[in-house]
Each structure stands twice: as structure tokens, then as C-alpha cells.
Amino acid sequence: MSFSLIVTILIFILISMRQWLPAWLRIWHIMSMGALAILIMGEISLKAAFLGIDWNVIAYLFGVFSIAAALYDSGISDRMCDYLNKRHPSIPFSLLFLMVFSGITAAVLTNDAAAVIGTPIALTLARLLKIRPTLLLIALCASVTIGSMLTPVGNPQNILIAAKGHITNPMSSFALWLIVPTLFSMVFAFFWLLYVQKKWGQECHQHVSLPQPNHGSTWPAYLSVCLLIGMILGDSLLISINPNYHLPIGIMALIACLPVYLFNPHRKTVFKEVDWATLTFFVAMFVVTGAVLASGDLQTWLGPKLHELDHPPLLTTISFWGSQLFSNVPLIEIYLQLLTKQELSTMMLLSATSTLAGNLFIISAASNVIVVQQTEKFNAKPFSFWEFALVLLPITVVSLLFSYLWIVYVMS
């Protein structure tokens, strides 16, 4: 076992024990220390580490964080909650509203964008309902992950599959194959989380000190959202016509956030509110996963099974558990290169499995990490590692099993 793999396992253990560690130690600190240890031990060179960072994803996150900060600054969270407050919302209604809003946002704007936009809304709703925000934050993570499964732009791994999986019409293919598993998983998640809330009872209210929005110009933020949606959908349609024409999602996000920095009078505040800690986490994560992949451990394990990678049981096992250890995006990129047959059913199962894997642990999906980091940025206490895992374990098992049966036995 390579040193980089040992570090990866230690990172996983430390994050799982974080509730017993000093409060100042954040997830991005742990990942950064792991990346630094790998670089010091020479597991990967500085040049290889730099080239291993997916700067397209980093650019995309920066653009999305900028747009989300501008949306919050415009007061969108307050307006949504004021609208709900006039209707005296109950916990079930607020939960349903948050999950539907987050799921649709994830499907259209990708899961990371939905996580950034949804976190202050979940915290504001918790303050409105006078409950601890744990349930709403976990619901946000679950709905963002499930909703992102529906479209080829719902998450980075879907974008990779749509671009490199030889799918002729990604938008209609994803919708046809995955709309039933998505809706089933979302409905089950809602009723399960509602049951958990009733079992927990009325939680103690936790003070959440959200910064006051400036309520400045709203149109730059809304224009940025429209630009991002338009470019993502347009790029998806363009790929279906000619796969050679593709605009990287990072470039799209940078273009989309331009109105925020060109026309928003509070552009300095927006830039300051960008979640730099989460960006640091992802840079460090790419260094760690790059070192693990360079070590050849994963390729060695898969060696005897390379000709069976399209078999549903093996594909599901590798993509689900591999996503926990190596992160789903790097795993999918390698998996697509190793597959000898890229049939549509294989691509859809790969997408569903790697996406739903994000509901098992905090570090299983980037969107979960974003929710944690955003919550802590707002000086609120997020859920613990095991709290998240125990609540979402039934959702993970049921949604994964149903998706497998639907894709393998109904659609194939």
C-alpha cells in the first residue's frame, strides 16, 4: 500500500472523527495537511500535482461561489423566507420546499451551485422555524445529490459521461433513463427525513448569525444565473449535435459571473465572500487523489477485472465504493478510459451509482463539503460525520437499489 493511499485513509478517519477534534480544525485543514504530507514525501512532484488539479472545476466553483454570494447579497434568501413566513410554514412544508427547490437547482445549475445557493436558505429557514438547522442541511445535501442525477449537467461526473460516453442525445437520454429513479428517490428521501424529524422531536434552537445582505442591485446576479443556465443548456444541446464542440464548464462559470464583477456596486464584498476555504479543499483533494492514482494501486486492483468493468454488479461496486475513496470525478474519468464497451445502459448505471454514492458520507460528494464549509462560514454548526451517515444510510441504500433494478431490469 502506497504512502498516498495511507494518507487518503487517514484523511477519511480524521474527518469522521472531527466532532472530537478541536473546533478550529476544519475539513479543508485536514485535506490540506494530507496534500502537504504527500508533497513533502515526494509521492508526487510539484509539476505533476499542479497538472493533476482540475482547474476547470476550480474555475467553475469560483464562478458559482461568486454568483451565489451576489444572490445572497441581493437578499434572495430573506425574500424567500419572508414569503414563506407570511404563510406560517410548518416543518414538513419547509422541508418539501427546500428539497424541491434544491433538486431543481441542482438539475439545472449542477449540484455544487445548488449547495452554495441552498445553504443560506436552509439556515434562514431554520432560524424562521426556530430549530437546529441539522435536518434542513442534511435534506439539502440529499436533494442536491438526487436532483443532480437527472441531467447531463447535474454534476461534474455526468458532464464527463455526457462528453466522453458517446451519448448521442444526453439531455433526453438522462431524462428518459433516470427520471423515475430520481423522483422515487426524492419522494422516499422526503418521507424518511420527515420521519427522522418527528423521531428527533422539536430540536433546540441554535443561533445562526447570518450576515445582513446589502440589498443592492439584483439584476447582475440574476443575469449571471440566466447566463450560466443558458450556456450549460446550450452546451449540452451542442454536444448532442456535435461532440467536438464543447465549452468547458469552468469557462462558462467565469463568463457567467462577469456581470457580478462588472456591474454590482458591492463587487468587493462579493469577492471577499467567495468560499476560499472550499476552493483550497478542492485543490488539496486533487493533489491527494492525483498521487493515489499515480501510485497505480487502483489500476492494480482492477487489473484482473478489466474485461468485466461493464458488468452491472462489478460496475456498481467499483463506482460506489471507489467514489468514497477517490472522489467520483477522478474515478469516472479513469473508468471511462478503461471501459471497452460504452453502451447507454452502462453509462446511465455509472452515472446513477457514482452520484448516489454522494449520500453516504460527508466527503462522498463535493456538494456535501460545500454545505459544511458554507455553514461554518456563517458561524453555524453543521451536522457531524456520523450524524450525516446514519440519517442518509437508508436513503442511500433504497435509492441505489431502486436505480439499479430500474436501469438493469426495466430499461435495459
Automatic annotation (TrEMBL):
InterPro entries in the cross-refs: Cit_transptr-like_dom (IPR004680)
How does the record classify its membrane topology?
Multi-pass membrane protein
Instruction: Provide the species name.
Output: Shewanella surugensis
The UniProt keyword set, sorted, is: Cell membrane, Membrane, Transmembrane, Transmembrane helix, Transport
Q: Name one Pfam family in it.
A: CitMHS
Phylogenetic placement of the source organism: Bacteria, Pseudomonadati, Pseudomonadota, Gammaproteobacteria, Alteromonadales
PANTHER family per record: TRANSPORTER ARSB-RELATED
Which parts pass through the membrane? 28-46, 53-72, 92-123, 135-154, 174-196, 217-239, 245-264, 276-294, 314-336, 348-371, 383-409
**Which cellular compartments is it found in?**
Cell membrane
Per its record, how is this protein called by name?
Citrate transporter-like domain-containing protein
Domain Citrate transporter-like intervals: 15-332
